[in-house]
Hints:
By secondary structure, chain A is of the alpha+beta class.
Amino acid sequence: MLVKQISVFVENREGKMREIAGILKENKIDIKTISLADTSDYGMLRMIVSDAEKAYEVLRDAGYPSKVTELLAVRSSNYAGCLYDILDALSNSVDNIEYLYTLPDEGEPYIVFKVADPETAEALMKEKGY
Amino acid sequence: MIWNEAKECMSRDEMQNLQSKRLVKQVSYVYHNVEYYRKKMQAAGIEPGDIKGLEDLTKLPFTTKNDLRDTYPTGLFAVPRSQIVRIHASSGTTGKATVVGYTRRDIEIWSECVARVMTMADLTNEDTIQISYGYGLFTGGLGAHYGAEYIGATAVPTSTGNTKKQLAMMCDLGVTAICCTPSYLMYLTEAIEEQGLLPQLKLRRSINGAEPWTEEMRKQLEERLHIHAHDIYGLSEIMGPGVAGDCEFHKGLHVNEDHFLPEIISPETFETVDDGVTGELVFTTLTKEGIPLIRYRTKDLTSITHEKCECGRTTARLSRFKGRSDDMLIIRGVNVFPSQVEAALLEMGETTANYLMIVDRVNNLDTLEIQVEVDEKFFSDEIRELENLTRKIAHNLQQALLIQPKVTLVEPKTLQRSEGKAVRVIDKRKLV
Ligand SMILES: [Zn+2]
Ligand SMILES: [Zn+2]
């Protein structure tokens, strides 16, 4: 499955996260999952939300550099070694994984991957039964 | 077209003759009408009779901003208040403002000087000129306004601020030229692009001054707005905008040197430097009545050429300003100008040209941090990409500045935008 992610550039300043969350609340955008990568100077907030395009619009209008990207989402199962199996299957389909995080869902969570070509990866993973 | 061909296309000999005659007259006028100058000249052992022409110019003492402060508010005025028809003032970075006064004839000459510069920018009575400089004590607004009226153009005095209204006027009135600071025009350009207004604009020229800018910035403005962007220079002490301006060839700013006599000196030795060599610009007013100034040190850094221009004008030309001698930062012993940062960023074109330099001293070592705004267009959600961008900016800045800055990316529009002048430097070293 492919999912749309909204990513936002966040300066390391007090109240920034709250401000962004406030904008999403105001626009009734539901956050499904969130991940924050931080460097010493800034953070990169990555979210999967109910409406990524709308989130992009409202955040951009508020002056936050944002971007919508497609991620590959793979359903996990509850057994030891599941992540290994997924990564193993993926390793034949993609060169490089930029980052990954989980997306909770009813049932087992998805693992979302940033890869160079998510569509091709999705097709290849489907062939492998994912 | 040339506004005043007789004056702007004189041979060098004729111009020097005229300047000599006017200098002799102005020195004598100052001596007899301004007590402060009389004392200053006496202290230097000079009488008006010693100044017989241009060759004696360097015998005269310099005037600085301090002289204006010491005589605040009107001690350097050469005429009684009854003959002053207008006052302008510039805010001093430290303490008191400097106040200048104009006679009716000063205003007339000033208007003509601005008219000459507007004509260099191909403006005529057919043009509608929006004046987005501040009106008030600052010389920009009224100076440009009188010049626009002088050539018979339609002046639209929007002054600064209220960008929405500025854009509405530009669109609705078919404004063909705008006068404002280059950074404000950049700001307007972003707004115009965001709102997709370019097709509705009839803008073909801009005249920009009151702060130093770069050739790269001109290129950007010209390309993004489909205009020609002209440089105008002036300072209130000497007159206001219109002391010099550039023609369609953009090869330096033509000085209205029949009224303002330029010199370039070394800020260290005070000796005159050769044509083409960068130094501090010094002006002597030649026809000023209200507040005539002798060898006024502008602190602006530039070089001069006396070669005839392709446009036909023979007046001396100043190269693009390299900053101010008091804007110059010395960081780890290296001379650094904010304009170099701007030029490097514009050349890269992967960020906005907005930046803030923060200079500090940690353990006796100067540090330079440069905050740069992320450009939406080049934004990546991969930290690796942003780190590459940061490295690339740092590398390019190091090439330009010859010192290694720390580059920090910040959100767009967080750095102060200027409707007047932008804050580009915070030097924390002075606070210690
Ligand atoms: Zn041009
Ligand atoms: Zn020219």
